[in-house]
Amino acid sequence: MKKLTPEEKKVILSKATERPFTGKYDHFNEEGTYSCKQCGELLYRAADKFDSGSGWPSFDDEIPGAIKRVEEADGRTEIICAHCGAHLGHIFLGENFTVKNARHCVNSISLEFIPKNELKKSVEQDLEGKENKRETAIFAGGCFWEVEYQMKQLPGIISVQSGYIGGTTSNPSYEEVCNHQTGHAEALQIIFDPSKVSYETLAKRFFEIHDLQQLNRQGPDIGDQYRSAIFYTTQEQKEIALKLINLLQEKGYKVATRLTPAPIFWPAEDRHQNYYEKSGRKPYCHTYKKIF
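Above: the chain's sequence. Below: its structure in token form.
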């Protein structure tokens, strides 16, 4: 661990925030990689940095496995280095700055920049390997709080995000979706490591944690936003989902699940992310039932 200055300790250990527009990496656009100031673990690629106008360095993605999210009492989500726990800043969703719709708002003082030509080739290859070891899956099966709670229990899950998909409105609000103004379904986007968990395992779990025979509802939750749907991101995912649907039909199930190529996924508001962890409540209509 690097010995920190008093100013660095104030932010990295005591979770203070540096003043906006004062950090060395706010208006900084060189090619390279950003690491944790305290332990040196690689956190962000410069290619994922963008200018949000907030006064702090902003990134819309992280190096897989490098960042840990911590829910705070005020509803915000803190981001820390997954290796050493150093405070980095906060993450905000649904602001529509980039296609990924996420903003890691990071204190410059928590970061160390490594120019592209100084990064060891072996480290660069390891980073590329990490990037290749992730895939995106999107499922809609009723209330996204419930689907998130049930799906995130599986191994190999890198991150989960509740949101909206399948409608016509850009960047919809929860209220608009609930009032049937958008055509969107409540859904869960899962980033996973296919070397640790297969898409077929995820799809099987999805079918086993909701009533796949109900149309436009899930238990007491009624409406088209609660429809059962799989939004595939690759041709292979489509083929796996079709195989499982055919198998379910052979078992006598009247499958209501729709199979559709994935359009844009819109992250839900922060209050809907990790809902059950924040609220301390328990799921009320989704339970696991083995059917495969």
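The mean pLDDT is 90.
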